[in-house]
C-alpha cells in the first residue's frame, strides 16, 4: 500500500454498526459488559477507546511500526517514554532540540535521578565517548528544532545497536510522509501530533510508534496507570488531518524552497537554515533519509538583536506570530523567547539560537504571497 493510500485507509474500516465511512467519535467514558469481565474489547475509556484505536492503527502503519500509543500531548508521549527508565539511568540526546523536551529531561526527570547528556550529533561517532553502562536511551531529533540540523539516523542506530541501546526519534518536523525512522533502525518514534499530523492548529495530541510490541505494551500499561490519554474528539481530529497529510506537507515543502531561496539573497538576512541547500552540512544525509526537505525554515538577521527580530515578527500579515508549527497556515516565531525560552541562554547560543533567529513554519498558502509578506516585514528593519 502506497503512502497516499495509507493515510486514507490504513487501520480504518467502516463502522460495523452503521457503515459510517468516517470513524465515529465514541464519546463515552465506559462500556456495557455482558457480565463481569465479559465485554467487546472495551471496558473503560481511559484504557481504550475505538476512535483512539483506529488512530493508533493508522499511525503505526504510516511509520511501519508494530503498534502506536496515543497521548494527550507530545510532551505526555515523551514523558511516558521516559517513565520506562529508572533512577541513575542516562540519556544521550541531541543538543539542538525542542525547548519543552529539554525542560522535561532536565527539570522534571532530572530530579528523579535520570541524567541527560546533550550532544551534537552531526558526526554520529561523537556519541561513542558518552556511552557507558548507564546509558539506556539515545534521543534524536532530525531535522532539529530550530536549527534544522540533520542527524544520520541509520548511523546513530548502528552505534546504538552495537551497545544494545534503544533509539527514539522525534519525527515531528519531518512527519511520516518525509521520513520513517523505524525503517532506518530506530526502535521508537514520537510525534507531537498537534503539528503536521493534525495539520489544522485545532488539537493538542501526541503519538508514540514502537518497533516492538513489548515496548508498546509497556507504554499502554503506563498510560492506563497514569492516565495521560487523549479524548475521542482529539483522536477524530488527528484522523481527519492525516487524510491530507501527504498533500499538505508536499505543498509546504514546495513553498519552503521558494521562501528559503528568497531569504538567502536578501541583504538583511545573515544565515538561512534549510537542509535543501546543497551547502547545508546535512544536505546529503537529508537526501538519503528524507523524501523532501520539509516545510520548516529558520534564519538569522545581519542586525543580530532582539529588536530587529521583533520588527520582523510584528510586521507580517500571512505569517502569524505564534507558537507551534505544521498547520495549513504559516507561522513565524522567535525561538529564544518562545519555543526555546526554557533553555538557558548560554546553551541556546552554543547551538546557534541567537537573539535574531527567526523560525518559520511554512503553510500551504500561495508562495508568492508568503514571499511578499516576508519582504514587507524585512523592510521594516532600520539600517
Shape: globular
By CATH, the architecture of the largest domain is named 3-Layer(aba) Sandwich
Q: What value does the Rg take, in angstroms?
A: 21 Å
Count of separate structural domains: 2
From the N-terminal CA to the C-terminal CA, the straight-line distance is: 55 Å
Unreliable runs, pLDDT <50, ≥5 residues?
none
Number of strands: 12
Q: Describe the main β-sheet briefly.
A: 7 strands, mixed
Approximate helicity band: 25-40%
Topology:
Blueprint: H1 3-9, H2 50-62, E1 67-71, H3 74-82, E2 90-94, H4 99-108, E3 115-119, E4 135-141, H5 153-163, E5 167-170, H6 175-178, E6 188-192, E7 206-210, H7 213-226, H8 232-242, H9 245-264, E8 269-273, H10 283-289, E9 296-301, H11 306-313, E10 320-321, E11 331-333, H12 345-351, E12 358-361, H13 367-378
Parallel strand pairs: 2-3, 2-4, 4-5, 5-6, 10-11
Antiparallel strand pairs: 1-7, 6-7, 8-9, 9-12, 11-12
Helix pairs in contact: 1-2, 2-8, 3-4
Question: Which labels suit this protein?
Answer:
single chain, 15% strand, 2 domains, seven-stranded mixed β-sheet, Aspartate Aminotransferase, domain 1, 383 residues, five-stranded mixed β-sheet, Aspartate Aminotransferase, domain 2, alpha/beta
